[in-house]
Amino acid sequence: MPQQDTKAHGLLLVEDTPSLQMLYATVLRKAGYKPMLAASGAEALATFAEHRPRVVLLDLMLPDADGLMVMREMLELQPETRIIVITANGSVNNAIEATREGAHDFLVKPLGDIRMIGAVASAFAELREEVSLTVDSAGRGDALDRAFMGQSAAMQEVHNRIAAVAASTAPVFILGESGTGKELCARAVHLKSDRAAQRFVTLNCAAADPEMLEIELFGQSAPKSGRGSAQAQTRAGAIAQADGGTLFVQNIQDMNRDLQAAFLRFLQRSSFAPVGDTRQIKVDVRLVCTASRDPTEDMRAGRLREDLYYRLFVIPLTMPPLRARGTDIHMLAQYYLAQIAAEEGKRFSRFSPDVLDLFLTLPWHGNVRELINVLRHAVVLHDGEVVTRAMLPHNLANLPDPNQVPPTQPNADPFAGLTMAQIEERAITAAISRHGGSVPRAARELDIAPSTIYRKREQWDKA
């Protein structure tokens, strides 16, 4: 359901056929939107200039103007606008041309209700997601500072790595535990590159319908005749949408083997054919990937093609776990506390000293995501200006105070009372911390394979 600020004045529908305009408007209103209406290019531009809607449904075939020209003028007035173009004469070439010039999506008449509402909802969702990282060239550094708050050695290594790889066109593979900010890292690579003014397109292979993943990636060409798939529509896939910009592919190992082979051919040729078409379309795309599991292990297990692995695993970049970032935790906690308190209408502004000390001792297996959940728990369930230990979730509030060192006996065994699994976790975590979050260096110290550490940390996250 769209947020409140999008309902009143956030959507413009441009359609010159009265019956279709009425039909589309009815569907949108039932979904909770309140679209402004226009029936010509001139009316559309006048309405757009006055109200500056954030999302536009634009028919390319208008009685007084070329729809693409109207789209260009709208984007010149407000570049961040998400424009969804509609046509009865769609082709893949038109879809690519529209997306290259800034269209968010491409629909072909007759429009399905679900497809239209899905496209509109996606446009608004993308705008909300990009608010914190929408910057011009002068403000780009500030956005990166917000995304990667902290001065630890581990984060400085990440900053340096991003600066080194941003100007390249080589694929980047981002590694790291769940919740460490791998997508923010990918956006930072994009914002630091000369593609920053172009689109950053995300495709999560694990979240997509496996049967639709090929279309999500390569797009779809409408059938040339009425036979066959009558519901098929011309649709620009993630690759076409990212032309000139960056394509961020998550969990690429969840593609089936045949689709992995097709994706490899795209990487080798820099061209692709949409589903239902044989014509090759040339594109210029920078690829950034990430995975929820160790890609080396997936390659050895046969889940990731070996030839694709070596094509993708050119520049690895590892996001450090929160527990390896030292007092960065305090900076992040303060930032998110202010953000969550504002969202919830609360007065919280700081932490008690014992909470700050405790934060430095926690393993944070869920990383920044876990930190945010802990803070939201405290803010939602309590009132005040200072977050105290009693306000934390029960499992954290009852931990021993890190400042109260229990008396020890001479020659006491530091591992007494611990299971082998607990000893192993402590040893690996300590080694990673000693090496500033670097898993490969920790693995060399412990004389084990890095993949062993990644596998065990995944097991800990699930525990």
What is the CATH level 1 assignment of the largest domain?
Answer: Alpha Beta
Please tally the β strands and state the result: 14
The assigned CATH architecture of the largest domain is 3-Layer(aba) Sandwich
Name the structural class.
alpha/beta
Let me know the CATH homologous superfamily of the largest domain.
P-loop containing nucleotide triphosphate hydrolases
Q: Main β-sheet, in a few words?
A: 5 strands, parallel
CA-atom Rg in angstroms: 25 Å
- Separate helix tally: 21
Q: If you consult CATH, what is the topology of the largest domain?
A: Rossmann fold
Strand order of the largest sheet: 2-1-3-4-5
Number of domains: 4
The best one-word shape is globular
Report low-confidence residues grouped into runs of 5 or more: 1-8, 129-141, 227-232
Overview of this structure, please?
The protein is α/β, with parallel strands linked by helices. The protein folds into 4 domains: 4-129, Rossmann fold; 143-318, Rossmann fold, CATH 3.40.50; 324-397, Helicase, Ruva Protein, domain 3; 420-462, Orthogonal Bundle (Arc Repressor Mutant, subunit A). Helix content is 47%, strand content 11%. It contains 21 helices and 14 strands. The chain has a 5-stranded parallel β-sheet with strand order 2-1-3-4-5, with helices on both faces. A 5-stranded parallel β-sheet has the order 7-8-11-6-12. The chain is globular. Mean pLDDT is 81; it is low at 1-8, 129-141 and 227-232.
